[in-house]
Amino acid sequence: MHIQIMKSKIHRVKVTQAELHYVGSITIDEDLMDAAHLIENEKVQIVNVNNGERLETYVIKGERGSGQICLNGPAARKVAVGDIVIIISYASMDLEEAKKFKPMVIFPDDQNQLI
After folding, report:
1. What is the pLDDT of residues 5-61, one digit of tens each?
2. Of 14, 106, 15, 26, which is closest to residue 62 (Cα–Cα)?
């Protein structure tokens, strides 16, 4: 049996851009991606703290050190620039592996920079 567990989380980052006329995805500062063990094209869940919206999309690399968090395409309608979001990725593991697994959780500052 496999279960889905949280693999990593970027806890409470500020949306810096929302680009409606784009193919779709979330662009994340590459420093934050590395720290949270996210890779390009990985599926993530976005939880908007300001309005309660939840959505799934995939990751695109943003400029390293920029603090960029940009929701693209239809996801841009679910956020406003300045909203606080939580970005979560999940992994499928067998039950015994999942019991031992420790997810990577990062807590950037209010400028979306690593502390």
Report:
1. 999 999 999 999 999 999 889 999 999 999 999 999 999 999 999 999 999 999 999
2. 26
Which residue is listed with tokens 């050190």?
A: 65
Structural fold of domain 2-94: Barwin-like endoglucanases (2.40.40)
6, 90 Cβ separation under 8 angstroms:
yes
| For the chain, domain boundaries | 2-94
Tokens of 34: 């590395």
Active-site annotation, residues: 25, 58
Cα→Cα distances 7→13, 66, 84, 85, 90, Å: 18, 24, 20, 17, 5
pTM higher than the cut 0.85: yes
